[in-house]
């Protein structure tokens, strides 16, 4: 009998500790037989003993070995879901939470009342829930209201190797919650499940676990997979994938094909083309009507386009027209360039051509199925069913199929080598997706999918040189890519003051954490403790910071939202933040009078005009929204030089922000109003102040040419501004509606350089300098602190003034008298 491998230093598993209870489960017919084939089943006893004897256990095993579907069942049968306690399982991906809760419910013959899921805004959890699948973000929220997770007897952190930010934070928090529960005599078990990747980050990590937890490795049978590299790396990997799949299908023996591409649009395009090439028709019924397999997929905007990368003038077509090729024109790529990796056991390294042993199979239909995270549940489930007789299964997937979902009987993997990764925008904290090379570890995981049921082949659509030189070993944990400002604010809101000491599995840089803390102090979200020094990194969250933490955007925008809530301006601010977060909504049409006139009209007069570019954006988006309700969005955008994709993106973001804010603030019931009337003059003034509150560190002042002696310098500084620490003159960009207004004090969203010479401000709003002391206090130095002023009444302006002076920032700009 095979014994589980136990990590060196981990406690030894000794006497069998058979659970005292056994909760019977009534499985539907056939399920038990299928379970028995899974590698984890063979280890059930060892796994359960380890869990009974240790509070923390790490379970590592190849994808498809049965971890996710079986562990909850073991625990249930061993009595961990009794007395109103639950077994909780977290997943980084929503699709996995939903699909796995369904599967486990089915295998156990239990309904969704008992085996449930909860993801953001959606779920089927009931009072009777015993096994609860959820996204990691959901559990993190629960910890904020119930720190010791009193409703759970076990928490399973699944897919820990994916290293999502939330799973990483959960790991740190649970490493403290588990001992706390033990001291209270109310044990909580923690099981960390992972593919066999880089376990040392959480096992040999003294900050997390003083004694390394035992590691159980589930050995699973992995058949040899031969890896074939392409000789050349071609740009158009979709076409390459198509050609490769055609070749495999027409020339190689039976066995499923799994193709990895990067996103929903690509999946759908490839599925469509492969279906066209090898149509599946239901011949038995004698009908010419094609099976559902060939149904055209409905159009929808995908979550993960990144519009600013594309040329707005090019009409995007979802359909990628690939030629239906004559296969004989394409010689088989030699498989000579084989990787030395352990993955390759080259005893099965025959050339493709030798394997054409069944000429009849060459024109067989292909059963092509898509798989991506937003695919509806019932379509997702199709990949688990065997293909119709006489056809070959071909699944086109995103990296959902890499470790979260295992498709049976795959023999050939085609890997484009790329993936879509979340990239965080530094200014807005809003994330976008971009396509990059994946890591070596991921590529090997993908290859491994071909060896689940027998020897297989993996065709990489890139060269071995590319693999060796361009692929990083492992994907960098998300924690180290995300802007830390959001992270620090979230953690402080959870009551974790010393973020620097938090046991992160892979901590962000110390300097980054400190810089974030400094910025959050400037924004007023954090406050140094009384009498503490500059390098005390344990600032406390303020009440402003607390409300900021409820908004899912970068702290400066969160501050605007929090303050606007007090002023009943939330709907406008959401629209403004959404519009500012998407790049290039307004297309630059230098010299186009008509467009300029429209923009000028949107800008309005008085405070609206002074609100500047954000005002134009808000009106443009509002007007486009209005046009959209009558179906004329595209032509409206064309006419007004708005980037259609950006407008659609803003709309989505607006809906998303509105929904998230509604869920964060009870009884708010905010709706996105397509008819939103433009703000009144007074509201526009408040909006200017709100923008200053968030962008208080991005203030610029116009330089008065009279103060400059040198004639050359005079020209250089004509209409120019001085921005913070910048030496060079900065100008308002020509696309700004304020470019001819030359307001003396402005805030800007961004400074950027045009062709290596001139600096320009984008997203400009005029402000009144007397707002600075109250709205950007951390950057102002006043002659007297504000509470100590002596106000005087000025009858000519009917205002109260206080005669103090001050400076803003290190540039020592004089501030005028503060008006109250
Ligand atoms: P792991 O978590 O170790 O990667 P899983 O528990 O997800 O493994 O998968 C175990 C097995 O269950 C796999 O062979 C997979 O194909 C199968 N499986 C998972 N979901 C379904 C489903 N909805 N229908 C049929 N089989 C499934
Ligand atoms: Mg799994």
TrEMBL record:
Supply one GO molecular-function term: RNA binding
Q: Name one GO cellular component term.
A: nucleolus
EC top class named in words? hydrolase
Which UniProt keywords are given for this protein, alphabetically ordered?
ATP-binding, Helicase, Hydrolase, Nucleotide-binding
Catalysed reactions listed for this entry: ATP + H2O = ADP + phosphate + H(+)
Top-level lineage group: Eukaryota
- Where does the record place the Helicase C-terminal domain? 326-495
Q: Does the keyword Cell wall biogenesis/degradation apply?
A: no
In short, the EC number is 3.6.4.13
Q: Name one GO biological process term.
A: maturation of SSU-rRNA from tricistronic rRNA transcript (SSU-rRNA, 5.8S rRNA, LSU-rRNA)
Where do the record's region annotations for Disordered lie? 289-314
The Helicase ATP-binding domain extends over 48-215
Query: Which intervals carry biased composition (Basic and acidic residues)?
Result: 289-299
Q: Which family does it belong to?
A: Belongs to the DEAD box helicase family. DEAH subfamily.
- Protein name, entry field: RNA helicase
Source organism per UniProt: Gryllus longicercus
Which part of the entire sequence is included in the shown chain? 246 to 1065 of 1167
